[in-house]
Amino acid sequence: MIITIFAKPNAKENIIEEISTTQYKISVTAPPVKGLANQKIIELLAEHFNIAKSQIILKSGFSSRIKKFEIYS
């Protein structure tokens, strides 16, 4: 499954908001430096979908606020 993430780094708290089944708005406290925000997004998605972090791959948008992740179940 491919999902689209609208990322907000440097937020006050970590929050996942589901826009639709394939679109999410995710706020993370991590800064957008050296992939830290992307790592935190992967952690939150793994918790949300109750899967391992290794089952989530960032496909596009490494340095963008709009990202595409592929989730393997």
Automatic annotation (TrEMBL):
SMART domains cross-referenced by the UniProt entry: DUF167
GO cellular component: a single term: cytoplasm
InterPro entries per record: DUF167, YggU-like_sf
Pfam families cross-referenced by the UniProt entry: DUF167
Top-rank taxon, per record: Bacteria
Family: Belongs to the UPF0235 family.
NCBIfam families: DUF167 family protein
Protein name: Uncharacterized protein
Biological source species: Berkelbacteria bacterium GW2011_GWA2_35_9
